[in-house]
Amino acid sequence: MHRREPARPKVVQSVVLFLFTSALAGALVAGLALPLAGLAGVTTAKAHDTVQYLPQDLKAAPVSQKSIIQAADGSLIATLYQENRVPVTLRQISPMMRKAIVAIEDDRFYEHGALDAKGTLRALLRNQSQGAVQQGGSSITQQYVKMNLIEKAKTPEEAAAATADTYERKVAELRYAIAVEKEYSKDQILEKYLNLANFGDGAWGIEAAALHYFSVHASQLTLPQAAMLAGLVKNPTGYDPTNNMKRAKERRDVVIRRMQELNIVTAAQAAAALKTPVIDPKKVRNVPNGCANSKYPFYCEYIVSQLKNNPSFGKTPQAAENYIETAGLVIRTSLDPRIQKAAEDSMKKHSKASDQAVAAVTIVEPGTGLVKAMAQSKPYGNKKGQTSYNYNVEKSYAGGYGGFQNGSTMKAFTIAAAIEKGVPLTYRINSPQQIDLSGHKFATCSGTTSAPDYKPKNSTKTILDPSMIDAARASTNTYFLQLSEQVGLCPIATIASKLGMQDAQTMKPLQQVPSFTLGSAGLITPLMLANAYATFAARGKYCTPQLVTAVTTSKGKSIPVKGRSCKQALTPQVADGVNYVLNKVMEPGGTGGKLKFGRSDLAGKTGTINGNIAVWFAGYSTRLAAASVVADATPKYTDLARLTLNGKKIGNASGSGTAGPIWETALQGALKGLPSTHFVRPDDLTIRGNVKDLPQLKGVLPPIAIAQLQQLGFQAEVSPTPVDSDAPAGTVAYTSPRQEDGAPAGAKITLYLSNGSKATPPPPPTTPGPPGTPPTIQLPPGWPTCPPTDPRYPKCRRR
């Protein structure tokens, strides 16, 4: 059976939509709400439903705008954005630009309501004749609504719905447009429109577009410039002059002629504008996006990683990142360009990107924790000789390398713990080139620890019986191991923790192992070490490292960030003592003696780890503290002697000779021009220590000497190697520490026995005394049977 073809729905829709549009325009003028009940009879059910369930107003999307990161002096470090946009007020946009956009997009904008009925009808008829949507009739208000819906879209489906070529979307835009026109004036709508619009080539909003294409502000746009930008809105990609100059000119000229038709410009003005080049390619200004394009990419990435973990910016790192890139923030940091340049100049002087070894240095301000500079030998990137790793920081984000063992720079914390316990700076310990500590129990915070086969050696020559100062100057391993055994690992580890030292891979406490003082307790970063040493420079005041000093929104509102956080981690007296000891390291003959410069007091310490995989130098004045490292950062790690630095084989790597020059050049440049400063001399109690007097034991038999020491609360041991002395053979020649220096309570006193080489020959032996004489102590063969210098044995004679 033949069935009649149904009427074409598009014809009906067109007529109905025309009637609806006319009615809607009248309703808008009258200031009335959309008559939803009547709408059901004059449009499709789908259109009716679309309108019926729309909100009564348009909740505008926050305008995405670029954020900037600034150095301490306000200079630009980086720009972060998803859309390069700088919002401006309508007064900050040239009148010519306002006229140009209205002329080409909606010349009756100031005359009609939410929509232009004439323009809409014209577009409908054109589209109907073509069988599809070919021409837009949208007012500027409707376009603004569409931009908002696109901006708010969080999924591809929402974005597609916001741009769908359907009449239903048009109806939805109209309903929203009514609400917008009720809430804002025409000028306010135009301002929002120009700030939200896409002008192509990564420029969003009129200010960013003016700066990008012409290197001028929006307030300075001329007729041809304004016409070009106004023409871009219709097709930002197709009319982009950086892609197609010819099409861009054709579109610009259309705008200029339209402005002439509307008598906005004269024929002469139009003719002159048409002859003007579209753009000057030399003035096109791109805005680099992200840390990779920053002058200081590693510093920048570390800052962003910290902000992404700040709940003030988002509940998740992803949410925080989105906020940072769209909120128009101004992020002020601690980076000092002058000090950063000094650090980078040092890297250029002492290393090359092509080196097999890597080098890094961090500079921190004592007393504030402000991180002034970070530099490293390998530049940012993924090409040969480049890296995305930041060798200065912990592994708290993908780019953080996570540190290296830091060797003998850990001895500073042992010195601090010893001083805190009352150990004098003159405290002497017999420190041969190698000692056997196998099985020795080192007290920890939770018990004891030991190493079954541990026979450490010195890597430098030293005197046999050094003081703490002597041992620091020569970096005597055997001295500091014994000192840490006597002081205990817990006090040393506690001080290190108070000063921010932790494992840079796990961010957990350092392991309390016998070799803690030699830097094998975990992996440390230059940032950690520089900041810890800054605590000594600040007389015991520890400050958490601070890179971000302030964050404000585009409206000037402050966002909470971790501010300066300082505490007195050590007493000033303990810090003064550490400064006194480490200052001697920088004097001639010390391991840092060749690195001394200027008139300011300097203190420092070298560090070398087993296998020479990494070498360090950390040091400071009262103004700045810095730590430098040279290391192999490529598994399988190898001795630095085999690698290159500054284009040459390193050979004999050392803290003073390899890492030290980087520290020296960087800190010298950073301190250049600043007044000299000096450390506070420690008081006499700190130098002499909180010690107890030792008895005079020269010439006393070991068992009796040990008994006396134990009665006074000391520990005692006998050195197995006799020494030259004028004391009788087998008796005490001297102690370590010396009797005149005293020793802290509970300290271990080493007795050195005389070999009799300088003693007067003893007389022949005599018979034992009568009953009542004190019993003879059982001694090893070769020892005298009684102490000739002890008054308690008046009848004892020499053999």
UniProtKB/TrEMBL annotation:
UniProt-listed Gene3D superfamilies: 3.30.10.20, Biosynthetic peptidoglycan transglycosylase-like, DD-peptidase/beta-lactamase superfamily
Feature: compositional bias, Pro residues: 760-791
InterPro entries: Beta-lactam/transpept-like (IPR012338), Glyco_trans_51 (IPR001264), Glycosyltr_51/Transpeptidase (IPR050396), Lysozyme-like_dom_sf (IPR023346), PASTA_dom (IPR005543), PBP_transglycosylase (IPR036950), PCN-bd_Tpept (IPR001460)
GO molecular function: penicillin binding; peptidoglycan glycosyltransferase activity; serine-type D-Ala-D-Ala carboxypeptidase activity
Keywords of the record: Carboxypeptidase, Cell shape, Cell wall biogenesis/degradation, Glycosyltransferase, Hydrolase, Multifunctional enzyme, Peptidoglycan synthesis, Protease, Transferase
Region (Disordered): 719-799
PASTA domain ranges (all copies): 689-755
Keyword Cell wall biogenesis/degradation on entry: yes
A single Gene Ontology CC term: outer membrane-bounded periplasmic space
Superkingdom in the source lineage: Bacteria
Pfam families reported in the protein's UniProt record: PASTA, Transgly, Transpeptidase
Reactions catalysed: [GlcNAc-(1->4)-Mur2Ac(oyl-L-Ala-gamma-D-Glu-L-Lys-D-Ala-D-Ala)](n)-di-trans,octa-cis-undecaprenyl diphosphate + beta-D-GlcNAc-(1->4)-Mur2Ac(oyl-L-Ala-gamma-D-Glu-L-Lys-D-Ala-D-Ala)-di-trans,octa-cis-undecaprenyl diphosphate = [GlcNAc-(1->4)-Mur2Ac(oyl-L-Ala-gamma-D-Glu-L-Lys-D-Ala-D-Ala)](n+1)-di-trans,octa-cis-undecaprenyl diphosphate + di-trans,octa-cis-undecaprenyl diphosphate + H(+); Preferential cleavage: (Ac)2-L-Lys-D-Ala-|-D-Ala. Also transpeptidation of peptidyl-alanyl moieties that are N-acyl substituents of D-alanine
Family: In the N-terminal section; belongs to the glycosyltransferase 51 family. In the C-terminal section; belongs to the transpeptidase family.
Matches recorded under PANTHER family: BINDING PROTEIN TRANSPEPTIDASE, PUTATIVE-RELATED, PEPTIDOGLYCAN GLYCOSYLTRANSFERASE
Protein name, per record: PASTA domain-containing protein
